[in-house]
Each structure stands twice: as C-alpha cells, then as structure tokens.
Amino acid sequence: MVNLSRLYSDRAGKMRKSEIRELLRVTQDPEIISFAGGLPNPKSFPIEDLKGVVQSVLENHGRTALQYGTTQGLRELREVIAERACKDGIDATSDNVIITSGSQQALDNIGKLFLNPGDTAIVGLPTYLGGINAFRSYESNLMGIPLDKDGMNIDILEERIKSLLKDGVTPKFIYVVPTFQNPAGVVMPESRRKKLVDIANEYDLIVVEDDPYGKLRFEGAPVRPVKAFDDMGRVIYVSTFSKILAPGFRLAWTIASDELTRKMEICKQALDLCTNTFTQFIANEFVRSGSLDLHIMKIVEMYRPKRDAMMDAMREFFPDGYVCNKPKGGMFAWVTLPEGIDTETMFLDAIKKKVAYVHGKAFHVDGGGGRSMRLNFSYASNEQIKEGMKRLGAVIEEKMKILCR
Length: 405
Ligand code: PMP
Ligand code: G9A
What we know:
Layout: H1 10-14, H2 19-26, E1 33-34, H3 47-65, H4 75-87, E2 97-100, H5 102-114, E3 120-125, H6 129-136, E4 141-148, E5 151-152, H7 154-166, E6 173-176, H8 190-203, E7 206-210, E8 235-240, E9 252-255, H9 258-272, H10 277-288, H11 291-317, E10 332-336, H12 343-352, E11 355-356, E12 358-359, E13 372-376, H13 382-404
Parallel strand pairs: 1-11, 3-4, 6-7, 7-8
Antiparallel strand pairs: 2-9, 4-5, 8-9, 10-13, 12-13
Helix pairs in contact: 3-10, 5-6, 5-9, 11-13
C-alpha cells in the first residue's frame, strides 16, 4: 500500500466532509422521508418547456452551444442577468457578471482569491455549510457572528470587527445569506443591510452576499439586495439558477466591481476553463422568453403550501418546548429543541424511524447549534411532510421522555 498521507497537502488534511453531501446517500433510500438536503422539488422542473428550448438551442446555436465558451460566460446571458439585477437596485452591466458552475464554485473561488492560510473571514452562526467548507478548505479561521430574527446581529458584528482589528487581524470578508437564510430562514431588513454596508465601508472590508433564495418569497414585500446599497464596489453578489430552475444545470453568477470581476475570472480560468456552455444557452433562452418568471411564480405556489404543511404538522406532532419561526420564503425551517436534546445523536433514532434532517452543529463554526436542526420543506410531497413530521415528532417525544426520567 502506498502511504499517501505523507504526500497530501496540509490543506487536504483540514478538509471536512459535508454532512449534507454525505446525507444525500442515506436519503436515496426511498423509505426515508428526507428533510435533509436543500433539494428543489423535482416535480417543479419545467421539463416540457425545456424540451422546446433544448431543441431550439441545438438547431439555432448548436455549433457554439457545444463549443468551449469564455471563462466569464455567455454574453447574452450576462446581459439579461445584469438587466434583471438592475431592476432589483443593483448597478451592473454584463461586464460585472461572471457565470459560474454553481454558486458553490463562486464561493470556492472567493475563498481562493482572498484567503491565505490563517486568515480570518466572518460568517453567521448558523451559516451555509457549503460556505464553511469552501472557506475552510483554504485553511482560514472562521469567526461566527450570532443571528437574531433579522439575520446577522450587526452590533455584535461591529464589536467583533473592532476587537479583531485591535488584535492586528483584518477579516478578509463578511459572508452573509441575507434573504431566507440557509439554514435559519430569516431575512435581514433593508435598514440592517444598509448598516452592514456602512460597517464594511468604515472598516474597509468586503461583503459576500449569497442569495439563492431571494426570489422564493411566499409573502411580504421584496427586500433589496445588500449589493443595492453598495456604492464603493465592495459587495460581491452571488446567486444561482439552482433553486429557481434546475441545480443539474450547474449555473450561477457573481456580480462585482470591474476589478473584482477580473480577479475572479482569472481564478476561475484554472478551475473549469468555462461554465457549461450548453446550459448557459438554454438558460438564456428560458429567461428571455419570460418562462423563468412564470416558473418562479409556479415554484412559489408549490412551496408555500409545503411550508404551511410543515408548520401545521409541527404544531400537531411536536411536543411543546420547541422554537421555530415561520419562514416567509426559501426552503428551510430552523427548529430549536429544549435543553438537553442533542440533534446529532438524535439523528440515528430519526433514521431508524425513516426520517432525516440536518443537525444544527453542521451549520456552526463554534461547535454550537447542538439543540437545533434544519428541516427542508421543498423536496418532500405534502403527504410525506405530514408523515415525516409525525415520525420526527415521535422521535423528539421519546428523547424528551428519557430526559425527564
Ligand atoms: N449558497 C447557499 C446559501 C446554498 O443554499 C446553496 C445550495 N444549497 C449554494 C450556495 C450552492 O448552490 P449551487 O452551487 O447549486 O448554486
Ligand atoms: O445538495 C447540495 O449540496 C445542495 C444543497 C445544499 C443545502 O442543503 O444547503
């Protein structure tokens, strides 16, 4: 046997497996009702509409759509993304857009661009696990800032930045998922977004705004992106087609200043040469025909009752003592259980009862979150949601009985 461990980089030794990716294997079991992965509902995929688009792309653009493309991405798609971003209050042209192979690639690219080993980046407590893993793979230290019902607590953020700077540490960026946060489901109000940009301006920092769920709003008025308040070019906006069209396309985008865009483009040249050209052509046609907006409306109509079914079932089947705010959009509910319960160990009981979730610690860089869990409501059918919540309620009840003994 070759002893590979002496050959691996220090970086490889520090990489951690993703609970979400590992769980995907477990949840392939058709008997398990999965509230684990952040998967869109496959019934939402616009297969019939896409048949026509695929046909048309092959007929009209086959020779370019099957060829390598530029690293920055298809110009027409970048143009339409920039037009749509302008409607959301972001000042951008196609030159500020890069099409990436999923937003996961964009996060990795941002880590690659900014993080030296030992550098510090700021994230939420909790925050998106894939972000944690991407940034940690560059051997960085992640400082967690607690969330409240309005997202990252901005006062604590400012305090921590001050104390880091006092210790001679410049945090490289602040990573936020401000709209229907993964995993907590909360939305940062505009006043706080503005304050976040003010803080970044005052302390001369970068903000990474990750926004896969902003368009999946079930109620209430839209909130402008953090990037809309950025007049210094220090916010990198990231969004994706994964949750509004199809994750299998592996298409996402960044919007950033000219300088940052150029830097990220050069980083990306070494990652994948170019994003999938074929799906870029398809997405471009899908967006421009107006199909995407209709499709988003359909997804919202599909997910809202799922959210409601989960909330109703929680009330019906969970024992008293849990806390869960009703998410106004996105794909996740975040539940905190009474003191004494450890959702990581409880997971094994849940799997025995054929129901899955992601335990809260997976989303915490400080080892916290042990009483919490993330429940995805987009993937399961409404019937499965009711049945799965019943199973989960029984698992929690059992744990609570043991605690009371
Ligand atoms: N960021 C967040 C906050 C996410 O929830 C996800 C997927 N769940 C991603 C990034 C990655 O998505 P993708 O690579 O499919 O665009
Ligand atoms: O399957 C993935 O890794 C994407 C989903 C992310 C999530 O569950 O947050």
